[in-house]
Specification:
The structure is a single chain. The protein is an alpha/beta fold. It folds into two domains: about 130 residues, HAD superfamily/HAD-like (Rossmann fold), CATH 3.40.50; about 80 residues, no CATH class. Helix content is about 40%, strand content about 15%. It starts with 18 loop residues before the first strand and ends with a helix. The chain has nine helices and eight strands. Helix 1 packs parallel to helix 3. The mean pLDDT is about 95. It is globular and about 65 Å long. It comes from Corynebacterium macginleyi. This is HAD family hydrolase.
């Protein structure tokens, strides 16, 4: 697979920098705080403190990949929110309660202890190409969260409630970026596969959660900052 960072340009002109497409949770926003806030909302709403306690224990265990025992067998949640939903389902908590708790938990996202990858804000503030943020999360609490991360104003476009993967495909089609895109995300099917399928490149952020067996990113990294300094600092 090619790892050429720039699209071809007419002879004598500078190559066009790739469009950088970022996910939010688990990519530019790091830390378990938002997930635990979500679990706490469900626990308080239902009176089932075990939901929060179990989520805390699993996330603190450093288990990798994280697994959950369910009546159907061993399940690999795709991220922290999926973990909490899976735990909640074992106590017959409805999707409606989970969704209400999720939306409520996002209101104070900025105060949950989230951090940005080291060096990301400085890099994006000087990046000569386009940088987009596309997330399945709602807009609720996002601006304050970006401000706390030092990332407010560094993205050329912000897309919320995207409905990945289909919604991400629509964004790519409407912009007609072609293959000159590098996507960053922690969930292969949602954040990266649509970009790879269109000939772009993808950076999978490694975490405690098991990536899909079908994942075929261009790169797998644990640190976005190191990747940017190694591969894109020359642009």
């Amino acid at each position: 697979m090619s790892t050429d960072m720039n699209s071809r340009s007419p002879q004598g002109t500078a190559p066009k920098p790739p469009v950088l497409l970022f996910d939010f949770d688990g990519t530019v926003s790091l830390g378990h705080g938002p997930v635990l806030a979500y679990a706490e909302k469900i626990a308080k709403s239902t009176g089932i403190s075990t939901i929060l306690d179990t989520a805390k224990d699993i996330l603190a265990s450093q288990e990798s990949p994280i697994t959950v025992k369910t009546p159907e067998g061993t399940y690999h949640p795709r991220d922290g929110y999926d973990l909490v939903r899976t735990i909640s389902a074992q106590f017959d908590v409805s999707e409606a309660i989970c969704q209400e708790a999720y939306l409520d938990s996002r209101k104070n996202l900025a105060t949950t202890g989230i951090i940005a990858p080291a060096g990301l804000a400085d890099f994006l503030s000087e990046y000569p190409g386009k940088a987009l943020l596309a997330t399945n999360s709602p807009r609720t609490g996002l601006d304050d969260a970006l401000k706390s991360l030092g990332l407010l104003g560094v993205f050329d476009e912000i897309h919320t409630s995207v409905g990945k993967p289909e919604g991400l495909k629509q964004i790519l089609e409407s912009h007609d970026f072609g293959p000159n895109v590098i996507a960053f995300g922690d969930i292969w099917e949602f954040d990266l596969a649509p970009v790879i399928d269109r000939g772009g490149q993808a950076v999978l952020i490694q975490s405690q959660f098991s990536p899909s067996n079908s994942a075929r990113p261009t790169w797998r990294v644990e640190n976005i900052g190191s990747f940017l300094s190694q591969h894109l600092s020359h642009i």
